[in-house]
Amino acid sequence: MFLRGSTAALKHTAHTDPFKKFPLHELHVLTLANVKDATAALIVVMLLFIIPAKPNFIYFFSKDESKKPTAPSAPLITWKVVQQKLPWGLIFLLGGGFALAEGSSNSGMSKLIAVHLGGLAQLPKFSVMVLASLFASILTEFSSNVAVANVILPVLAEICINAKWHPMYLMMPAALACSHAFSLPVGTPPNAIAAAPCNLPTGEMVKAGLGVSVIAMIVLLAIFPWLGEPIFGLSEFPEWAGEVVVAVANKTI
Q1: How large is the average pLDDT for residues 37-62?
Q2: Which range has the worst mean pLDDT, 7-21, 107-121, 122-136, 233-247?
Q3: 181 with 163: CB under 8 angstroms?
Q4: Can you spell out the DSSP letters for the chain?
Q5: How far apart are CA 100 and CA 98, in angstroms?
Q6: Nearest to 98 by CA among 162, 41, 144, 34
Q7: Which of 9, 104, 135, 242 is a Cys-bridge partner for 109, taking CB atoms 3.0 to 4.6 Å apart?
Q8: Do 221 and 133 contact (CB within 8 A), yes or no?
Q9: C-alpha–C-alpha distance, residues 26 and 29, integer Å
Q10: pLDDT tier at 37 (50, 70, 90 boundaries)?
Q11: Which residues in 213-227 are b (16+ Cβ under 10 Å) and which e?
Q12: Which residue(s) pair with 75 in the sheet?
């Protein structure tokens, strides 16, 4: 509980100063880089390898010889436990998705795809939303939902900005559709975790998951157009999206 609370506190102070004097990320005493959430998490992980599992070291200066520790205490977690218990496949899966999204953004691939898909702006918005959601739902069955979202969402954002649509009109249903991975074990780690111990055949999983995917897509397309517009104001192009366009243009210049 203490380490969990420390992680939350460090993540909070990485962005704001609790004393309201100055931002902590502007302190250049230890590093010139901005402190982010990953830094706070790694600090706590390092503490897990340092803090002893048994606090018998407090009796090191005790006069009672029977209380003094005779052997070093193991830390709360060891590298052997990490090697055996940590789902490395999941780490590489999520990390690969983030790397793929970062690469597509920095290389300009998302903008290039958006330019070639500019003809979609001539179609009705609802039709484009249906196509984007269906594409995300189908693609997420064969790849990680994180990777699919990281690749598709920047492209949809560029399409919306070029067409002067509210970016959330396409991005939100597509992001929800990226979670419609019900048919194949490779779609998402929970599917693989559930299928492996049960020796569930892929065909049986497809039979059960296909119906769920269809129902989820129907519900999404039936509800979002009616609730999304009044709640989020999706009928107008927001000012912050226009500011993004100006910032990108200035950066390019």
Answers
A1: 80
A2: 7-21
A3: no
A4: -HHHHHHHHHHHHTTS-TTSSS-GGG--SS-SSPP-HHHHHHHHHHHHHHSBSS-GGGGTT-S-TTTS-SSPPPBSS-HHHHHHHS-HHHHHHHHHHHHHHHHHHHTTHHHHHHHHTGGGGGS-HHHHHHHHHHHHHHHTTTS-HHHHHHHHHHHHHHHHHHHT--HHHHHHHHHHHTT---S-GGG-HHHHHHHHHHT--HHHHHHHHHHHHHHHHHHHHHHHHHHHHHHH-TTS--HHHHHHHHHHHHHH-
A5: 5
A6: 144
A7: 104
A8: yes
A9: 9
A10: confident
A11: beebbeebbeebbee
A12: 52
What single letter denotes the amino acid at residue 98? Answer: F
pLDDT value at 50 more than 70: yes
Q: How far apart are CA 199 and CA 197, in angstroms?
A: 6
The first and second tokens of residue 240, run together, are 């912050």
Tokens at 43, concatenated: 């600090």
Please state, in angstroms and as integers, the Cα–Cα distance from residue 9 to each residue in 3, 4, 5, 40, 77, following that order.
10, 9, 6, 9, 22
Examine the pLDDT at 26 and tell me if it is beyond 50: no
How far apart are the C-alpha atoms of 98 and 95, rounded to whole Å? 5
Task: Tell me the average pLDDT across 139-165.
Answer: 82
Task: Check residue 174 and give its pLDDT.
Answer: 92
The pLDDT > 90 percentage for the chain reads 7
CB 174 within 8 A of CB 153: yes
Is residue 249 predicted with pLDDT exceeding 50? Answer: no
Please tell me the distance from the alpha carbon of residue 203 to that of residue 205, in angstroms, as a whole number.
Answer: 5
